[in-house]
Design goal:
This is Cellulose biosynthesis protein BcsQ. By secondary structure, the protein is of the alpha/beta class. It has ten helices and eight strands. It is 38% helix and 17% strand. Helix 1 crosses helix 9. The structure holds adenosine-5'-triphosphate and magnesium ion.
Amino acid sequence: MPLVCVCSPKGGVGKTTITANLAYALARSGSKVLAIDFDVQNALRLHFGVPLSDGRGFVARASESADWSQSVLTAGSNMFVLPYGDVTEEQRLDFEQRLTNDSHFLTRGLSALLNYPGLVILADFPPGPNPALKAMSQLADLHLVTMLADTASLSLLPHIENHRLTGGEPLNHKAGYYFLINQSDSRRHISRDVTAFMQQRLGDRLLGIINRDESVAEANASQQSIFDFSAASAAAFDIELVSKRVAGILGIKIGDGAVHAGLRTSNF
Ligand SMILES: Nc1ncnc2c1ncn2[C@@H]1O[C@H](COP(=O)(O)OP(=O)(O)OP(=O)(O)O)[C@@H](O)[C@H]1O
Ligand SMILES: [Mg+2]
């Protein structure tokens, strides 16, 4: 613990990019971090240097193994990734049915990871309602709902407020849910207007605004974090700030590597 979910009613808004870069930001601050992929696109691993040809992941083995930590890959000195993996349609459906029908399936799979001292877990989800997101609502400490500064995102705000992402249940039962506006562009009228409206409507629930920044796409293309690719970029600054706010909400110690130095990295 703690466990943070990055989700959205909308696709292509930057969930995977933000999950990966928040993981890098928290790891840079001294936390031991695990990023988990619940999206069949299996794209999160690409942000951690896992080759496209490497189809390993936890979903294909989820029906046989109750402990998903066996599928964790090391992605750096204090950074780990649990890829969804390449799966058949049958395996995907089986995984989703277990998530829907067995209320302990997710807790069992994550148990070893949730009990690992000091481990910060970030989970990435497919867009819209999905069985993994629904199952996670009981377990997660915090949800970050990612939106764009456009009218399509604005029109989906009531979906969040009416719990449409989780079939009528509250999205989060602990610290709650906060919003991120991604790809904000102050040169565009509509982006400025929507950002201002969301700031007013969401108030303290708006945890951060991340600028539209070409360095982000370029960092993704070169499989690097925004901090390694362009530490001075606007997006690097914005994501760093979001990571500090997340750490503040969850009481994660930052900037003190010594706190975590005693943890072993070989247990996964
Ligand atoms: N702040 C940003 N500035 C510029 N480009 C960005 C930014 N954030 C994300 N992108 C780009 O937007 C695209 C979508 O990002 P990403 O794949 O992370 O979205 P997603 O919400 O995970 O998508 P999906 O719903 O398909 O899972 C990518 O090409 C990414 O490089
Ligand atoms: Mg994604």
